[in-house]
# Entry
Amino acid sequence: MLSFRIILRCGAARQRLGYKRCLSEQRVTPESLLEEYNEKITTLHKQFAGRTVSPRSVFTNSELSLRYINVYGFDYDFTLVQYTPEVMKLIYDESKKRLVNKLGYPERIKSFEYNPDLVIRGLHLDIRNGYIMKMDAYHHIQLASVHRGHRLVDPQVVIDSYGGTHIPLHIMDDHHHRTTAEGSSTNLVQFLDSFSLPEVALFVDISEYLISHNISFDPEYLYLDVEETVKNVHYSNLVHTTIVNDPDRYIEPFPNLLPLLTRLKDAGKKIFLLTNSEFDFVNRGMCHVTKSPDWRDLFDVIVCSARKPLFYSSVNRPFRALDQETMMPSWQRVAELRPARECLYTQGNISEFIKLTGWRGNHVLYIGDHLLSDLSNPSLHLGWKTCAIIPELDKEIRKANSLQYKAQLASLLAVEMLLKEHQNKNDSSLMAITDKWRKERAEKRKFLKDYSNIKFGSIFRTEKAPTYFSRRLARFANLYTSSLDNLMDFSLEHRFYPRRASLPHEPDVNFDV
# Structure
């Protein structure tokens, strides 16, 4: 039987945290504070010790029932196919060589090694100051995250640069790759794409080299050089060619992909692929992962080279059918979207897509990894349901499940509860204890940040609030999970329920079964 226990400010329910009566009814002494501290720590440690989160979980921002999903759409890169860290190293290595050979950067840069733990996704770069930083959901710079090269920037220097820690909405809330504010001291770029990690790492590494060797440089010029070079590496097809020529090295195994798609097909669901990648690259990757040359038979429509997010906003880019042998676009107007085993398409736009398929509204679930290019427009403007694939989740959840992490988190929450309740004590002996708790709080928060990433912490949260990345994730994705494979754990009738979170003005609610 389900019992509902409302944790009120005072009352019997708080006895499980060591309360015998309301704080206002008892005299607080140093001894009672320390006793309360020990009781809270012990209780919370016991509670957290038995709690784990499965890395295969699918997390829910807003309620979604798979029963009513008739159409499943997929991105390709980092969705249907996941890449090994070797791909990031490949992009980094080829880009650094081109910077030296073609743009005259110092020869020493060729010896740099890609460090996958140097940066995280979702960071912002101020290309005028050369600062790489993390933002919270409320547009505040996280001072402990601001680096120039590998060096932490003095917090006061950051505050002086921006007139505080807050970045205005018109600068932050841009849906394009680069954000510029006329007359502002900031020029921000946010890195949301997994493929952008080598670009950020290379910018940071070169910045550090130039700074440490007292070589004068303009961060904006460096950024433009790195950005253009990485872009050219992609456009050259070197990365794609290298991947498909050695797929075992660069593509993660996904044995459940074919069963997953087959299950959808057998259930009568419509399936489409909408990707910015070219078909030859997609085809060779899918053949490798599914171990089947007939994987196209599972898709009702395949659109490659879609150029998202332009696909969602343009009305002047018609679909072009691809010749099955030459892969050259047809000159004939596309009047229908035929099954993928018969015809492939390139370019196009969302208006024509909806008109030709009739797939619209909340019966469509689109799954992708890029919050803006893949998910923002379908979610905000089309009414599609969306699911974000966030590979970083797996590593973060496994770290959060460790006993060390849970012990530190339990201690932090206990200290924060105590500080909230005892912050206004005027007695010097009590103030000494609360001062000690504040220092302990700062230490715990730093530990938890460093546990995820020594420089930037978690991709999902700051010390005080969700990250700006998390804010966009909550806004654009009904569901999110670490891998498409995790959906195999749920039936096609499953309803995903979001966790009910109490609003600040509501009482906390705890459910005990």
In short: The first strand starts at residue 3 and ends at 7. DSSP finds 17 helices and 19 strands in the chain. The domain at 65-83+252-389 is CATH 3.40.50.1000 (Rossmann fold). The chain has three domains: 37-56+393-471+481-496, 65-83+252-389, 85-245.
